[in-house]
Design brief:
Strand content: 5-15%
Shape: globular
Distance between the termini: 59 Å
Radius of gyration: 18 Å
Number of strands: 3
Largest sheet: 3 strands, parallel
Number of helices: 6
Order of helices and strands: HEHEEHHHH
Structural class: mainly alpha
């Protein structure tokens, strides 16, 4: 496959996304990207680290045989509204901004920080 500067067309054509990540740390951008495009995900436990994945959004596979079985049995085709809704409700930029606003502008959090500094 050639270099593709914009993955949108590829994601739109994909029936589902396979994410076989076996090591690393933190939340995986590829998982967020698949959720953003509303795709069902077949991935390792590592690919799902930090994400609230339900059976309607994805399936975890730990070895080649499980991946092969999940791919062969996958009935998800194209857009998965549950994946997109999870992205919008928990992992989008807007959601991150809302969380930061709550942390920064909640009066109780400011007073707790000041109290902790005085201890």
């Amino acid at each position: 496959m050639d270099f593709t500067p914009n993955l949108t067309a590829l994601y739109e054509k994909a029936s589902f996304v396979v994410i076989p990540i076996y090591s690393g740390s933190g939340m995986k951008v590829k998982t967020a990207e698949a959720l953003m495009y509303g795709k069902y995900i077949i991935g390792t436990p590592e690919a799902f680290t930090g994400y609230d994945i339900s059976p309607e959004i994805g399936i975890q596979c730990s070895n080649d045989a499980q991946f092969i079985q999940a791919i062969n049995e996958c009935r998800h085709q194209g857009y998965n509204p549950a994946s997109r809704e999870l992205f919008l409700s928990k992992y989008s930029n807007n959601q991150a901004i809302d969380i930061l606003r709550k942390i920064i502008f909640t009066p109780s959090s400011t007073s707790e920080l000041v109290a902790d500094d005085n201890d």
